[in-house]
């Protein structure tokens, strides 16, 4: 299950988005400037869901093409199509850009103050409702804040720099990102993953070990990875999960500060979804994916009739 976390993180970090209007171009410019910015600091990530709050504080450093994120539990280093951490390394040779859905519109940028810095805030709306607000430091391009809102208009996730330095802290000085062994994820066209779920389109599909598959989906603003594993898979990651019920279908859901994990069985396969989807988008996506319980239901009926 550790492989899912590092793979999903790699896919999300590599996501490139194509936007299409004048204001969207301004957001693209801010995102591109952030990708080239040098900075370090501490960041808080908070998720608000069903009356509960989960959070973590991490050290963040960005220099050149490399990003390091770490805390007392370890660190991960990302860049140049590779992600390495305590659990090993993964690499991809290619990935596709995602087109932002036309349901989104980008508002005009506005000047604000954040962390005693002059900054630019820009909003993204879905059918007129605020879905995301991003704030960038004017002087360095550093991404300072990302706010994500659910379908009910309430804040779902907050990612915010608590402190920021315009120079890298060199927390990974001496580490060699090119050293060590990496598991290469190879693109594959030989799969039966859905091409679309709700407004999310399959951008990339990769073949994994033991005939597993990973699909990376995006609507250009949010994204998720879907893992398809033959058999039952490893459920250890979900030991603290709660049951999510949608239209009498049951899933196991684990909420982390930065992403949600959902798992279920369908037919002969186990599915694991890892993503940054707002709750209403998650329900829409699950409705477009293989439904849970088909083989399990048959097995229960068979066992009930014949023991």
Query: Quick one: CATH class of the largest domain?
Result: Mainly Beta
User: How many strands?
Assistant: 23
How large is the share of residues in beta strands?
A: over 45%
The CATH topology name of the largest domain reads outer membrane lipoprotein receptor (LolB), chain A
* CATH level-four homologous superfamily name of the largest domain: Lipoprotein localisation LolA/LolB/LppX
Q: Biggest sheet, open or closed, and with what strands and sense?
A: 21 strands, mixed
Low-confidence stretches: 1-16, 295-307
Mean pLDDT: 82
Q: Would you list the SSEs in sequence order as H and E?
A: HEHEEEEEEEEEEEEEEEEEEEEEEHH
Measured as a percent range, the helix fraction is 10-25%
**Structural class, from secondary structure content?**
alpha+beta
What would the principal axes of the Cα set say about the shape? globular
Instruction: Please tell me the total number of domains.
Output: 2
Query: Whole-number radius of gyration?
Result: 20 Å
Count the helices. How many? 4
CATH architecture term of the largest domain = Clam
Say what oligomer this is.
single chain
Terminal-residue CA separation: 33 Å
């Amino acid at each position: 299950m550790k492989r899912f976390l590092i793979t999903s993180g790699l896919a999300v970090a590599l996501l490139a988005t194509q936007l299409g209007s004048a204001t969207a171009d301004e957001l693209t410019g801010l995102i591109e400037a952030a990708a080239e910015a040098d900075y370090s600091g501490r960041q808080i990530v908070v998720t608000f869901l069903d009356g509960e709050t989960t959070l973590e504080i991490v050290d963040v450093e960005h220099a050149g093409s490399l990003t390091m994120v770490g805390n007392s539990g370890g660190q991960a280093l990302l860049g140049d199509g590779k992600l390495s951490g305590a659990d090993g390394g993964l690499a991809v040779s290619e990935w596709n850009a995602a087109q932002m859905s036309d349901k989104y519109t980008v508002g005009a940028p506005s000047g604000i103050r954040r962390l005693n810095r002059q900054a630019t805030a820009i909003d993204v709306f879905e059918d007129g409702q605020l879905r995301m607000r991003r704030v960038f430091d004017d002087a360095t391009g550093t991404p300072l804040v990302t706010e994500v809102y659910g379908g009910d208009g309430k804040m779902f996730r907050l990612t915010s720099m608590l402190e920021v330095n315009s120079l890298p802290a060199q927390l990974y000085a001496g580490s060699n990102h090119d050293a060590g062994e990496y598991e290469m994820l190879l693109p594959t066209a030989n799969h039966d993953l859905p091409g679309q779920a709700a407004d999310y389109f399959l951008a990339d599909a990769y073949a994994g070990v033991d005939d597993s598959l990973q699909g990376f989906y995006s609507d250009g603003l949010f994204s998720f990875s879907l893992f398809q594993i033959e058999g039952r898979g490893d459920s250890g990651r979900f030991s603290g999960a709660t049951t999510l019920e949608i239209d009498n279908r049951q899933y196991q859901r684990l909420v982390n500060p930065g992403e949600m994990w959902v798992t279920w069985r369908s037919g002969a396969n186990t599915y694991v979804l890892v993503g940054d989807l707002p709750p209403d988008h998650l329900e829409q996506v699950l409705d477009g994916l293989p439904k849970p319980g088909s083989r399990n239901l048959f097995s229960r009926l068979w066992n009930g009739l014949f023991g």
